[in-house]
Structures are given as C-alpha cells and as structure tokens.
Amino acid sequence: MKIGIAGGGALGLLFASYLMEGGHKIHIWTRSPKQAEVLNEEGITRENNVYNNLTASSTLFEENVDAVIIAVKQYDLTEVFDTGLPDCPVLFIQNGMGHQDKAREQHTNPLFAVVTHGAMKNAPAHVTHTGLGEIIMGGSSKANPLAHAMLALKEPFSARWTDDIIIAMKKKLIVNAVVNPLTVIYEAQNKILLSNKEAWERAQILFKEAALVLDLPLSEWENVNKVIEKTRENRSSMLVDFLERRQMELDSINGYIVKEAERKGQKASAHENIMEEILRKEKDR
Questions:
Q1: Three-class SS of 141-186
Q2: Quick check: is 34 catalytic?
Q3: Example GO biological process term (predicted)?
C-alpha cells in the first residue's frame, strides 16, 4: 500500500518509519524542499535503522497515493483544508480538538487518532522514538484500507480501534491542557507538576475547569496524574516549541476549552489566564 504523509516533523517521520517496517511504501510531503531532497537521498533513520522505501516532495497532495496521514500541527491544517483533502482514506493525528467538523465537511469518513508516543526529530531525516505510548484511532467506520494498515502494525507501534474517538480525544486534550502550558510557564520538564506545590495547585485548577467543560468525571485526574508520572522526564511539545521559538498549539488545546466553555455558557477563567500569561511570556522574552 502506498501511504502519503503530510508533514515531515517528528511524528510524521516516526509513522513513516514504522509503516515502512510494516511493508508499506511511503510518500512524505514536507514544507521544505530541502528536507524532501534529503529524504529522497537518505531515507529515514530511526535509532540505528534506515528505512528507504519512500519518496518525498514539497507540493502538498501532488503525488497519487492510496491513503493519507495528516501529521502537520493544528495551526497548519488551514493549508491542508484549503488545498482540499484527497479522495482516499485520511487519518488525522493532531494534538488538540476543533478540526473534526472541518474534516467531516471535506471527507465522508475521516479517521482520527490519539497518539501518546514520544518522538524527536534530530535532523531532517533522523527521528528518535523517545517514549512508548499508544495509538487509539476511530471514526465512523474502520472498513477502509488505512484503518486495516494501522491496526496491523506490531508492537511497539501497534494501534487499537475505539468506537468513541471523541472521548479518547477529550482524555488526551485534558492532559495536554494541564501539562503543556504549565511546563512553558515554569520552563521545566513534566515532573515540575509533581515537585512544585504552586504548579501542582495550578494543575488541579486547570483540570477541574477543563473536566467540567469537557463533561469528563473528576476521576479522570487519576489518568492525568498517571501520564505525568510516566512522562516525568519529558519536555512537553508546547515547551519544545516555546524554547525553539516556534508557534505553539495553544489555541487548539487551551483555546479549544475556552471556546467550548463560551459555547456552553460557562467560564474557563484559569485557561484564559494561562493563555494570556504564556502570550506575555512569549512577547517579553
């Protein structure tokens, strides 16, 4: 099967390497023509393994493929939607929420996935699998070849299907909405939420507010705490983006909670405040 991947970031390269390992041919659409050139010449290196059953280009969706994985950041989805989704199976693997309705406007059966694996792009064609996690995917139907291809992947990159992907996305969102902004505020690894009393208290406030907005039970804190413990040595993706002066996914994470609260006639003051605090921090550095 020939699978196209939109995005040459850490997750795009990680997915590409494991799908090639599973016997699939890959085409990657990158933002940079230079990265596409390097990928065509070198393939992808993950740890000490090289995967070269691939081609790459920098013009989105120009290549004919059997299925597409959208691996760009949330804020780059506008370009994807403006280009128009191809008429083949499509899987979205973004952090945050808010893109599902637009995807369904353009595609009859878009798939969505929650991905908790850690990945780091060390060079244009080099990726490291930094932390084991899981892939939970879903949509209106799994009766398409991309779902079959993903569900056939072996450990440590296997995927599982859920009939309620929105709940899975909400559970991932609430973790991100608590952990990511606070690690930016303190410029620290995730474990700051366990060792710093003020950070811990702020985490509790953000969690309770988000749980109310997302209609999740307060018992979901057990999962949030478990993720923090498991990833204590990690730097959140938002912190990495902040430190590398890249655009952060603030709008699709905490911003989504603020907008959802407004839609329901509720308030999400803690999330509004931390967004403003991060934007000031970004401006003043």
A1: CCCCHHHHHHHCCCCCCCEEECCCHHHHHHHHHHHHHHHHHHHHHH
A2: no
A3: pantothenate biosynthetic process
